[in-house]
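Progress report, Aim 2. The chain analyzed during this reporting quarter is listed below.
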Amino acid sequence: MMTTLNQSYKDLAIPYFKKVFEIIDKIMKEHSVPYYLIGVNAIALELLKKGIKPSRGTKDIDFAIMISSIEEYESISVSLQKEGFNKVKAPWTFYADKYNVAVDILPFGEIEEKDTAKFTERYSDLHILGFNEVLEDAEEVQIEDKIVNIPPLPGMIILKLVAWSDRPEERENDLADILKIIEHYFD
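Predicted structure tokens for the chain:
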């Protein structure tokens, strides 16, 4: 089911979100890769459907992409770099100086082994438990002229809990995001 929002990208409170999203959308379509928006931006889109403004901004945009191999991931990485997104410390994070934004590209699908994706020795794995299941129930949301897939609210809670339990020392906002979802779930 598709929901159309009357709001604009500006309501997400992220400068350049529209431009960055257009680049990611183009690259994923070129590579024929299913993907969806996750994280606080997906929560914001869901809450915007009810007219609830985002409670916090973020300087990153998170996407889950369904791929089969690390080689496919590297091919997408090359495409991102051609568009001005440079790799940073975490192998799934890209930064665009032009837009002052970090983008996390989190792989799942056949690349998984025991609910993790292997990258480098320094970052041996990324926990991606629940990504496949959430994609099955992803919802289409139209904002301005684009359609984006987002997890349903229960799926967002699952992904936030997995991310938080993986690195609680780095994920202080996850529990507040979960609480915000619960507070507005029945709205």
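The chain has a mean pLDDT of 77. Strands lie at 2-5, 35-38, 60-67, 85-87, 93-96, 101-109, 116-117, 126-127, 139-143, 146-150. These observations will guide the mutagenesis work planned for the next reporting period.
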